[in-house]
Backbone:
């Protein structure tokens, strides 16, 4: 199979690399399969229309143009190879519910359906109580004359659908498209309903998973569908691939990196960024219409088309910026809250260091041209390292610490979607019980067993506050919310509290921290005051404590 095809009605006036099949005749392609095509008129596994956009608009020299076109095919293939999503399918039955308040609407849709094509039910919107489940297994609760009943259907047509319907897969509103469009969709779904698993999830670093208090559920808040739901009694997140639209909004707001975007995950972003060294990356979200976009792409601009334009976070954008040592142009008119905040934070960091923005956003053609005219390399900003084994926070921290170096560049405010924080400890009150270390699942708080120190790496802290909620002492642990201090100490481990080991007064074995023993002794002394042996046990290890008490018991007997 020839993998790459370049099809254009008008003949190319220059040659392309031999790995690319070039043609202006569609009839030549009958029966041929391709991996990557520049045009949607040719069937292929991946449409890379950014190639045609680049070819038509670039001002690169002919030699660079020829080699960059080949490179763009290779980048598209790399995207396919790195993708970790996989297709799934589900059988969809023919039970159809029509929800409308007008008999005209119901008649209109029934008229357009073939007889016996669907097993059709109809209800008025006024009796609808709730819809749950997914396409192929939707559960509808209706209330009629004070009694509730349940309908189980495969798909729903809901005229003037309310928000609740738009969150569920398998629910369609003819007033948003048309009756014929909706009927075509219903039929197609019954033939073959395919979906993908866009999201991967690591519960071990999730800030919601199995915590007593709810300190995060940001992904649930931003998800436009019911693809992520909270099971509050177990504190588990439930993911429904079939309901996920693949927008990626949850990825950009996840503070810990527990969610990743399977079509282009964190590792793929790093791999792809390596192609953009010494170029100006132009990241284009798939919702932008490239066919009708005419701009002059000045020399050195290389596009990257991405799916799900809402997943880019601070790490992805900084990776592109540092590896290319250029400002990055992001062409997207549907920016997510998380991406917008990531861009603001990165731009503030870059302004402080390089007096330039890291990311230039364009939401339409004229803004794109403006960004293209403006984009420059950022002197001394190149930085690349293999971040593939690192978590999101760790890799971002490493990248920002490189920018900061030995300087103090001041403070950048974060939040409300990307949180950083500074943990403080009142050393007089801290007993070094280390409950806070156990509560922190992103390794921002660390206990050093050799030095008996409680340490914090501020750059890893998501400021979730679970350590504060877990601390047994009052007014001991606190967090200053939403700051990144751009100085070297913010990216290193700092000592929060320190102690030394206490040696058993009987056998000399070190068995607990001095502060913990002092605390227990302060509380228990009044109760044991009349018994010198019991008082002594407060300063003994478990073995000697038992021995002393047995001896005391035997003497008493
Ligand atoms: S946003 Fe991330 S850390 Fe927060 S609940 Fe969702 S998966 Fe967990
Ligand atoms: S990708 Fe979008 S639709 Fe899918 S789970 Fe995340 S926020 Fe929800």
Residues:
């Amino acid at each position: 199979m020839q993998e790459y095809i370049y099809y254009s009605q008008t003949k190319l006036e220059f040659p392309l690399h031999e790995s690319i099949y070039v043609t202006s005749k569609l009839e030549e392609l009958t029966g041929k399969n391709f991996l990557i095509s520049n045009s949607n008129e040719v069937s292929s596994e991946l449409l890379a229309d950014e190639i045609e956009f680049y070819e038509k608009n670039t001002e690169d020299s002919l030699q660079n143009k020829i080699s960059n076109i080949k490179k763009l095919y290779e980048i598209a293939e790399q995207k396919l190879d790195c993708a970790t999503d996989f297709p799934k399918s589900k059988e969809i039955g023919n039970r159809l519910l029509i929800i409308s308040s007008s008999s005209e609407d119901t008649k209109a849709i029934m008229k357009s359906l073939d007889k016996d094509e669907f097993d059709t039910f109809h209800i008025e919107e006024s009796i609808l109580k709730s819809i749950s489940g997914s396409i192929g297994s939707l559960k509808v609760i209706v209330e009629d004359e004070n009694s509730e009943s349940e309908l189980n259907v495969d798909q729903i047509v809901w005229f003037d659908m309310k928000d609740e319907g738009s969150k569920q897969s398998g629910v369609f509103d003819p007033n948003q498209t048309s009756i014929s469009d909706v009927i075509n969709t219903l039929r197609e779904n019954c033939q073959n309903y395919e979906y993908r698993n866009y999201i991967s999830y690591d519960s071990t670093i999730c800030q919601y998973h199995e915590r007593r208090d709810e300190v995060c559920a940001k992904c649930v808040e931003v998800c436009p569908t019911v693809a992520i739901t909270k099971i509050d009694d177990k504190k588990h997140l439930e993911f429904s691939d079939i309901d996920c639209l693949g927008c990626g909004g949850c990825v950009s707001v996840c503070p810990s990196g527990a969610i990743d975007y399977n079509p282009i995950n964190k590792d793929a972003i790093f791999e792809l960024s390596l192609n953009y060294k010494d170029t100006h990356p132009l990241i284009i979200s798939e919702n932008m219409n490239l066919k009708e976009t005419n701009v002059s792409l000045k020399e050195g601009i290389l596009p990257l088309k991405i799916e799900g334009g809402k997943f880019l976070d601070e790490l992805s954008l900084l990776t592109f910026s540092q590896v290319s040592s250029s400002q990055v142009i992001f062409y997207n008119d549907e920016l997510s809250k998380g991406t917008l905040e990531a861009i603001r934070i990165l731009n503030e960091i870059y302004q402080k260091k390089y007096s330039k923005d890291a990311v230039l956003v364009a939401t339409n053609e004229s803004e794109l041209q403006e960004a293209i005219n403006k984009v420059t390399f950022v002197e001394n900003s190149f930085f690349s390292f293999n971040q593939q084994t690192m978590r999101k926070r760790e890799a971002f921290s490493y990248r920002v610490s490189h920018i900061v170096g030995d300087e103090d560049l001041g403070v950048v405010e974060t939040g409300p979607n990307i949180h950083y924080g500074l943990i403080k400890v009142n050393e007089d009150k801290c007993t070094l019980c280390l409950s806070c270390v156990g509560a922190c699942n992103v390794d921002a708080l660390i206990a050093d067993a050799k030095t008996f120190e409680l340490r914090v790496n501020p750059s890893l802290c998501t400021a979730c506050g679970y350590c504060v909620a877990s601390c047994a002492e009052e007014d001991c642990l606190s967090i200053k919310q939403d700051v990144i201090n751009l100085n070297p100490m913010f990216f290193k481990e700092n000592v929060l509290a320190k102690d030394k080991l206490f040696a058993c007064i009987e056998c000399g074995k070190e068995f607990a921290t001095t502060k913990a023993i002092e605390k227990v002794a302060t509380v228990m002394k009044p109760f044991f005051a009349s018994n010198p042996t019991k008082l002594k046990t407060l300063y003994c290890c478990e073995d000697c404590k038992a021995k002393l008490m047995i001896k005391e018991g035997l003497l008493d007997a």
Summary: The first strand starts at residue 4 and ends at 7. Residues 198-199, 222-225, 227-228, 244-250 surround iron/sulfur cluster (ligand 2) (CB under 6 Å).
